Amino acid sequence: MKLHNYFRPTGNLSLFGAFLFMVYGASYRPQSTVAGIVDHYKVGDVVHSILAPADFYRMHGGMDPYGEPKWRLMTGQLLSANTDLRKLFSSQLINGTNLPDARGVFLRGMNEDRSTGSGDAAGNRGIGTYQSDEFKAHNHRTDILVKWGNWSYGGNNWATQWGDGQVTGNTGGAETP
Question: How far apart are the first and last CA of the chain?
Answer without folding.
Answer: 28
